[in-house]
Structure formats: C-alpha cells, structure tokens
C-alpha cells in the first residue's frame, strides 16, 4: 500500500487564543480539472525509465518520492535502480545520479538545489548531496524527537535546514541551513504549510471526513480548524501542504466499494482541495490516483507559488502531473 498521511486522535493540550471559528464543511464532488502531464516514462532500467519491484515476499515498490527543484527540474527517487532520475521542466530526461543504496525513501530539494535523501528503515539517516552527487552533510535520523526511523512520515528541505515529520504529529530539525548537525534539535507540533510560521495537522474523522487544523508554529496557538465531509469514503489522506500565499492544500483518495460485488471498487479519485487560511475551499481538483500495488512514500508536492505536482503510477509506467495556480 502507498504511504498514507493519517493521524490518530490526541488530546488537545494547546491553550487556544485568537481561534478562528470551527468549521464543518460538506465537501461537494470535485470538479473536473485535468492536470498537465509533464513527465511520462516506462518501467525499466534504461536511461529515462523508472524501476519497479514486483516482490512476492516483500512490499512491491515503485519510485518512492519525487521533488521539484527551484530551476524547475523534476527529480525522481528511482531507488529500485539505485539512482536519482532528472527531468527538465518540459519533461525531457536529462541524466541520472547514482546512489550507493536502494533503501532511500524520502527526497526533497532545498532552496539552493541541494538534494536531501532519507533512509527511514535500513541505515536510518538523512544525507544531503549537491546536484553532482557530492556529499554536503549527513546525520543519524534517530535522536531527540525521533524515537525510531520507521515512524518518520515526511521530509522537508527549507531555508532554515532539514526537517523530518514524526508520526504525523511533529517536525524535528535534524540539519541546519549549512547541512550540519545542529547544536540541538528543535521540535514543533504539526508540519510546515508553506509559510515558516504556520503548521497543520490532518486526521481521518470517521469513514468520510477529515479533521484539519492549523497552528502558529511560534506560539502553538490554533489559527483555524475545520471538518471536511465527503460524499464517499476517504481511503487515505494523501497530502497536507501549503504555499507562500497562505493557501492550504489537502489531497485525499476517495473510493466507493460495492458490497454486492465482493466489495469491488466501483469509483475512485484523488480529490485535491485548495483552502484559504481560514480553511474555506477556494478551488477543487480531481484526477486518477496511482494504480497497482507499488509502495510510494510521497505522491504530491506543492510549490511556493501554488503549483501542485503529482507522481502517479500506471500499469505502463509513471506520470508526473502538474496543476498551475
């Protein structure tokens, strides 16, 4: 199964001030909004192809993560082939960068174009490379705020360093802006949502709803909260992110099963909601989710200008799709 962003209930111990009104929003069916297909590749090990593993005794996997660089290049973590694949902003294959390991799962690109890789389960480390593959920094993943590598759920490369999300609850800074091990690790509740000052958390709230709230990262004050209700079951929360304009992006995988047909899936879609700072819907996108059994750590990315990217698996290969703001 692909990696899902799902949060369990927890007691809210944050003192609330300046709290926006709690919203209960009925999420109407997503309007058709076809993305632009930027990259389309076949499965394989040749240049320009991406690898998959159809394992019987372990989890099937495809490219675990992808990230978009400041120059518009798209990097794909092709860990099955022990490499990174690089495509330009028009989808043309440029080159591969060899990796010494096939156990990396997380990938992010920093503000200066540095490549940040995370190995959650084997070596349990974060490594930073320049675009030519030279190591700029490395740190053990486990430590203050991160009890075990398998509990990490997202990776962020930001102006102030590299942050890792743990258990969908908090983010921990594991490297500073110079890719060095910081003197101490800072841990903050939630995950950053575009702005350095705002974080958010999302969790399933029953079979067809998602509870979402945002907080001020400096004070822990709740800024907004909402419950988004959908017309069909939410199979998983795919992504929670944001942009520099203060919008929040929530992506969910919706699926309806038919009990009369052995619970076969009769409809499914990836619904992407763009919300304002008060968590009121501004825009709705819809597309097909990834197909097949291949595991995936990161499926969506949101750029600071509001551009939304998806890496989708198909029977024939991989598509990287883009919605412009």
Number of helices: 0
Mean pLDDT, to the nearest integer, reads 90
**What is the domain tally?**
1
SSE topology string: EEEEEEEEEEEEEEEEEEEEEEEEE
* CA(first)-CA(last) distance: 30 Å
Main beta-sheet strand count, sense and barrel state? 5 strands, mixed
User: At the fourth CATH level, what is the homologous superfamily?
Assistant: TolB, C-terminal domain
Q: Rough shape?
A: globular
Rg calc: 19 Å
Query: What spatial order of strands do you see in the largest sheet?
Result: 1-18-17-16-15
Helix vs. strand class:
mainly beta
CATH C-level class: Mainly Beta
What's the number of extended β-strand segments?
A: 25
Give the low-pLDDT segments. 6-22
Estimated share of beta-strand residues:
over 45%
CATH architecture: 6 Propeller
Could you name the CATH topology?
Answer: Neuraminidase
- In helices, the fraction of residues equals under 10%
Plain-language structure description:
β5 and β6 form a beta hairpin. The protein is mostly beta strands and 325 residues long. It is globular. The protein has strands spanning 22-27, 36-42, 65-68, 74-78, 83-87, 93-98, 106-109, 115-119, 125-129, 135-140, 152-158, 161-166, 170-175, 187-189, 191-193, 195-204, 209-216, 222-230, 234-242, 248-258, 264-275, 281-287, 300-302, 308-313, 317-323. It has no helices and 25 strands. 0% of the residues lie in helices and 49% in strands. It has one domain (22-323): TolB, C-terminal domain (Neuraminidase, 6 Propeller), CATH 2.120.10.
